[in-house]
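Narrative summary of target 7.
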Amino acid sequence: KRPILLENPATYVAFTESSIPETEFLDAIARQSGCGLLLDVNNIHVSAVNNGFDAMSYLKAFPLERIGEIHLAGHAEDVDDTGAPLLIDAHDRPVDDAVWALYAFVIRQTGPLPTLIEWDNDVPEWPVLKREAVLAEAIMAKEGERFLLGARHG
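Modeled conformation, tokenized:
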């Protein structure tokens, strides 16, 4: 009887056909089960690059009102067998600028939400970790204020 949050995955291959977009699928599961959603912004960026879709369009379709927590992380850059970019959700480096931009968009739409920076591998010294936390807090403060101003005038 404890609430859970379902996380959007990082993907490295895509189905050739699907009858329902991932965002719609996650929304349906959350609606039917009563669970919330954990939005992993790095997973969206990784999946978008790997599978050739627009990360911002994905976010605009995501059921933002169901988010209970946000995760941010760094990713490794590689190439696949054809030489195309391949991102790996590595949790071993700073959050990428593209991920910060997506995070800012989410906070602008939702207001401040609990946020965790995942750094599980090659953990750096404290000042590096603190810098990432300070960046998240700054975005949350700035975009959260924009959210509140929009809510007052909307």
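Helices lie at 22-33, 41-51, 55-61, 97-110, 126-153.
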